[in-house]
Design brief:
300 residues; seven-stranded mixed β-sheet; 11 helices; 7 strands; 40% helix
């Protein structure tokens, strides 16, 4: 794999946090060599979990989710919405570690089906169900919740103001919303060739914006920001750490009975995808940002 560990190593730069438009469209290109989108088929889902862990599609496993989610101050009586639940790994961890009642909302029907299978297998079909939602819907949520959590999911939402306002409406007074998301280092990042390639490879069309624009949308929606920080460097480290064992995974697969070439090729393709994402993160074109948003109680 041409030393995946070295190519997915550490590093990073600070983001240009200047103000920018809230909706930014990438320039269109006629590129006959454009890569295919990395759709979530069964083979890729299997590959993702070999690298990131059962129930995860990207960096940050159970320990990371548990540590980060302490910011939400959850209790057993609380209901929590996980926005962009993926395969449901974070949802199940929150249910198991904090005892809260979780509902995972996911746009991909494929991930909903697989995620619900995993929740049922874990005996958490009632405590941490995964259900489909449409982020563009006028009423995407069927209930109110005490807390909300989103892990690298909002960057694929085109109408962020609409969704964030809907989350605000359904979030109970004094509720907290924890967000980890990809943001642009600057509006000009969309002109970068590697960024454009990354955008084309995503399974769902991304609509990333600078962190300053995201912060403005949140405050315009009514939230107060308690945390607004760049976590790119630690995110790059998580990527490198998870891929450090990829060579051993391939070695183990190659020793198994039957033809494992398709699975091995899937791992190599996934590695190339994450090498590109790591590259644009290190160069500062793409950043990973954390927000902790608070919904003030209404004055009565």
């Amino acid at each position: 794999m041409n030393d995946v560990r070295a190519k997915l190593g550490e590093g990073g730069e600070e983001e240009d946090d200047s103000s920018a438009p809230e909706v930014i469209n990438a320039p269109e290109e006629d590129d006959s060599d454009a890569p295919d989108a990395m759709k979530w088929d069964d083979k890729r889902l299997e590959t993702a979990q070999l690298i990131w862990g059962d129930g995860y599609c990207g960096p940050g496993g159970a320990e990371y989710v548990t540590s980060m989610s302490k910011l939400l101050g959850m209790s057993k009586e609380m209901s929590v919405a996980v926005i962009g639940a993926g395969l449901g790994g974070p949802s199940r961890v929150l249910a198991e570690e904090f005892g809260a009642w979780i509902t995972g909302y996911e746009e991909s029907e494929k991930l909903v089906t697989k995620g619900m299978e995993l929740s049922t297998k874990a005996g958490l079909e009632s405590k941490a169900p995964i259900q489909h939602y449409d982020p563009a819907s006028d009423e995407p949520f069927d209930r109110a919740f005490d807390r909300a959590y989103s892990k690298e999911a909002l960057y694929t939402v085109e109408d962020k103001p609409k969704l964030l306002k809907n989350i605000f409406t359904n979030l109970k007074d004094s509720g907290l919303f924890l967000i980890n998301d990809y943001t642009l280092g600057s509006a000009e990042a969309l002109t970068n060739k590697d960024v454009q390639k990354w955008l084309r490879q995503e399974p769902v069309q991304p609509f990333p914006i600078p962190s300053a624009s995201m912060a403005k949308i949140l405050t315009d929606s009514g939230y107060m920001l308690r945390v607004n920080e760049d976590i790119t460097d630690s995110y790059i480290e998580m990527i490198a750490k998870s891929w450090a064992g990829a060579d051993k995974v391939i070695e183990t697969l190659s020793q198994q009975k039957g033809d494992q070439s398709a699975q091995i090729q899937s791992i190599i393709k996934e590695a190339e995808f994450w090498m590109l994402r790591s590259k644009i993160l290190k160069e500062g074109h793409l950043r990973v940002w954390r927000f902790l948003a608070y919904k003030p109680a209404e004055v009565k």
